Amino acid sequence: MKFIYSIYIFFLVPWSIFAMDMKNLLRKFDFYTSEVSIKNLPDSEKKCILKLMETGPYIDKIFLRQNFSKNLEVLEEIKRSKNKELIKLFNIHYGPFDRTDEHRSFFRDYIRPLGGGFYPDDMSKEEFDTFIKVHPEKKDDLTSPFTVVKRDNKNWLYAVFYHKEYEADVKAISKIMLEASELTQNESLKRYLKLRAEALLNDKYFESDIAWLELKDHLLDAVIAPYETYDDMLFGYKAGYEGIILMTDIKATQDIKIFDSYAVELERALPIPDAYKKKNIGAHNPIGVYYVLQYSGQANAGIKSIAASLPNDEKVREQRGAKTIIFRNVIDAKFEKILKPIGKELIDDSQIKYISRDSFFQHALLHELAHPLGANFVVKNNEFSNETVRFALKDKYSTIEEAKADILGLYNLQFFINKKLIKPEEELNAYVTHLASIFRTIRFGASEDHAKGCVIQLYYILENGGILYNEKTRKYSVNLEKFREAVRSLSSLLLTIEATGDYDSASKLIEKMAYIRDIENENLKRLEKIPIDIVFNVKVIK
What we know:
Layout (H helix, E strand, L loop, with lengths): L6 H6 L2 H12 L2 E9 L5 H10 L3 H12 L3 H11 L2 H10 L3 E2 L5 E2 L19 H10 L4 H5 L3 E5 L5 E5 H4 L1 H15 L5 H14 L5 H8 L6 E7 L14 E8 L1 H7 L6 H6 L18 E11 L9 E4 L3 H7 L2 E5 H19 L10 H14 L6 E4 L2 E6 H5 L3 H22 L7 H17 L6 H15 L3 E4 L4 E4 L1 H21 L2 H11 L4 H8 L7 E9 L1
Helix pairs in contact: 2-6, 3-10, 4-10, 10-11, 11-12, 16-20, 17-19, 17-20, 19-21, 19-22, 20-21
């Protein structure tokens, strides 16, 4: 349904109908509470993690401004309405736009600019590109992940760095992180928190990113920075502020620690020419399993992440690799509330038994391990240039990158089977579980990059016979051999698009395959009683 109201219509439509629409939109989410005990933490770390959680409201405020320039005004208006459903919806989506329905407005007749709050609301791609051509000396600042683009009184574009644009809130976050650094007894965490507090005040994150990768024996962790660029749908340049406060699952981290030492071998084993493979790559990519205690900002907007691979800075990844963080309590919630019910509805009865929580967890791990693999910089004349893949693919980058991480994670199953870290019989479990998860992710919305990446995977593998559809039962199944072959060829295609920075090929692939066809649309309607995602609340037991 399309919920876009002019002010005139808003006042004529009976409030009972409007309220019903709000309830329907809220039914897309399951309000889930996870209990996490911090009782066993030393007093120092307990105080530290509770202090870090104080950053949440400040990060939320910054991201509200980044998502839509009028958000703070809209929020005040919505609060005055005293409509609980409307307030809940705004808080879920960090604005008046349904992130699971192409950012359609559910309040008034607002239209979200493609550039969110990162650019002037009415700025076009053509205006931005033309200005940079005329003023190339301003390109670095205007395209920086950490600047807001504005116009002056001459209609010239200029950049304001985040630490200046959001100065009061950034200083508050930095102060909290410094205070937290004085509470922890872990020296590596103390160093990271101090460096990150400093980085927030100047938007120079390289040193603190390295310190984050060097954390050791830490019982807690904190992702606090502008990282992901999903909400810049104009160019994909600008990073949104996010916060994720974490407590380490020590046993689970130890159980998968061995996976962190294969980055170099995985890069060498990629199904692409050697010229497209990185020459330098961090040999040790740390991995951690955590319990989420708090999401804020972009991490909390709409769909919740089950894992991440950070930092995104290409220079950090070239020198030191990336860190994989997996969110145990979020994975458990989504498996029980969403993935299992989808599997029962759409997966062939003969293969439902292959859907497993372990495979869902495993794919989250392999997906994140795949993100740092492949080119970070575009290859020209068989040499890596200074142009990043992210910059070359612009607004197409996130879709291609998410599809790559998914499919390459499946491709790397064979590598880890050969290393005897994954059992051969788990391959079919992985494919069937991922097939169910494709339908889980597609429901995130036609404008969401993970969703578009999954639609590409679905139709590519269908066309190559790896996924079968039974028109009689209206259910899907996996052909093991053809699925494996499709995984390899799609991995090669996506890695090549990135390595060559081929914007046209990325656009054509998305245009051809990243839309949902009639059969799947009809089958997705069968999932309407299953939540699309969760509103994740944590009850911290002290």
